[in-house]
Design a protein that fits this description.
With 264 residues, the chain is an alpha/beta fold. The protein contains eleven helices and four strands; from the N terminus they run ααβαβαααααβαβαα. It has one domain: Alpha/Beta hydrolase fold, catalytic domain (Rossmann fold, 3-Layer(aba) Sandwich), CATH 3.40.50. Strand 3, helix 9 and strand 4 form a beta-alpha-beta unit.
Length: 264
Amino acid sequence: MAGVGRQVIFYDQVGCGNTFLASNNTCPSPEQLTVDLYLRQIDALRDALGLDKVHLYGQGIGGMLALSYAADKQGTAGGVLSVTAASTASSYSQLMTDRRAALKGLGTAAEAALLAADDAGGMSAEAASALQQYTQQYVCRSPAATAPSPAGCARVAAQQRSRRCFDALAGGRYFSPAGALAGWDAQGLGLSSLQETPVLVTRGEFDEVAWASAQQLAGLLPNGQLAESAGAGSYQHIDAWEPHLTCIEVHLCAAEGSPIPKTA
């Protein structure tokens, strides 16, 4: 998107990625890592950079935060021109349901190992192997995820640099609702305020988020659209980055009423 002249701001949430470099390796206490904090972080970012109007892109639970922020700002009234919610379920409990359904595709042994690890808060060798299998099948199908030196967000995930954020928002669990997002449900956001704000819901063909869940979320939106990336898992921006970015660029241009760049 930067290649067609857009200003693209990629930022890490507090307690995640490179935020420790900006805070002398400190982090707020776990009880301070709330949904409200992460929404206020977007405000702080916009204020610092003078971003009066923005398009929001969120992947997974980032899509949940993007939708919460857009609804809170009443969409275009608060300068949110559009939202892209990639691999985002209609509720956190639905995400857990989808993950458990996907887990059954790995076989009973892998399913049992991962559910036991999720309950225990630890990772056995069997669970670690099953998690890698789950990731390759549903999350990131690209060799980039399993390379000796993974690229981009796959590298951040491999280095566990998002652990504090994950523990706060997801309660350290992957297959059971826990943490600050446990009760998140798009139906309670007041999405009617997004009448003038187009929202693109996307998923990968092999996504852990089921097609029916993505459809449900899109159906809750007054101005929602749904798209699927062929051959991709949840990390569409890695598995199918070129068609995914093209789809998003078309979405952004439609929201702005601007022509689509020839390179998009």
